[in-house]
Amino acid sequence: MEKSEELSRIRQQIIEGGLRLVKERLVARTWGNISIRVDETHMLITPSGRSYEDLTPEDIVLVNYHTSKHEGPIKPSSEKELHCEIYRTRKKIHAVIHTHQMNASTVAAAHREVPPILDDMAQIIGPSVRVAEYALPSTKKITKKTVSALKGRNAALMANHGAVCVGRDLEEAFVVCQVLEKACKAFIEAEFLGGAKSINKFEAHLMHQIYIRKYSGEAHKNK
Ligand SMILES: [Zn+2]
Q1: What residue numbers bound the domain in which 65 lies?
Q2: Tens digit of pLDDT for each residue in 109-134?
Q3: End-to-end CA gap in the chain
Q4: CA-based nearest residue to 52, from 79, 71, 33
Q5: CA 15 – ligand 1 centroid, Å
Q6: Which one, 1, 52, 83, 138, has the greatest CB density within 10 A?
Q7: Is 126 helix (H, G, I), strand (E, B) or coil?
């Protein structure tokens, strides 16, 4: 596929992803953001402060994730640094979604790490969901804390803010958002039922490794 064709295809994918974010109630209005890795240097990301319903392919911003510099007159999302750092440090990740989804935000407000309480959570997200310590949005500190909380996982909570979900493609990142929301809801409710009971952490880790291997490479693309 031609480079320009590939870029237009990804721009379109991000627009559809933005509409899906709102439809699935993962964000409201202009909150949140989505990006996709294009190649070894660039990512495409949603612009800053624009409502998802009005976006056109030209509004999606091309950013060099090594230098954090963007191309063109449109400003990328204010959380672009977080996306850049994820692509710099997580070679297999090709899509990043930042959400303000309700149940994950509730757990993030309580600063509670979610233990591995459901099989699908352990498989798709990893052996726990950590909470990155509070820091002001769009700062170096929040990027550092969030990327560190995300280590070995496909999702992390951002204290008093929301969540970040990653995947090897955009579809996988959306599945991570859904599984995260379900796990956070189950965690909140199980705590009210006398306390959430965790799966053995080692087994949870193993389940995640098996999932990653089972759906890797070609097998994943054909999924
Ligand atoms: Zn946010």
Answers
A1: 3-221
A2: 999 999 999 999 999 999 999 999 99
A3: 21
A4: 33
A5: 18
A6: 83
A7: coil
Number of domains in the chain: 1
Cα(206) to centroid(ligand 1), Å: 31
pLDDT tens, residue by residue, 163-184: 999 999 999 999 999 999 999 9
- Centre of ligand 1 to C-alpha 145, Å, is 14
Distance 200 CA to ligand 1 centre (A): 32
Tokens 């909140």 found at = 188
Q: In this structure, which amino acid lies at residue 143?
A: T
Q: How far is the CA of 160 from the centre of ligand 1 (A)?
A: 10
What pTM does this model have? 0.94
Q: What is the largest CA-CA distance in the chain?
A: 57
The CA 173 to ligand 1 mean position distance, Å, reads 16
| Ligand 1 centroid to residue 161 C-alpha, Å | 6
CATH number for 89: 3.40.225.10
Nearest residue to 97 (alpha-carbon basis) of 182, 158, 184: 158
User: Do residues 207 and 123 make contact, with C-beta atoms less than 8 angstroms apart?
Assistant: yes
Instruction: Report the distance separating Cα 30 and Cα 54, nearest Å.
Output: 11
Cα of 96 vs centre of ligand 1, distance in Å, is 13
Mean pLDDT by 10 residues, the chain (223 residues): 88 96 87 95 96 94 97 95 97 97 97 97 97 92 96 97 97 97 98 96 95 71 42
CA 8 to ligand 1 centroid distance, Å: 26
Ligand 1 center from residue 92 Cα (angstroms)? 23
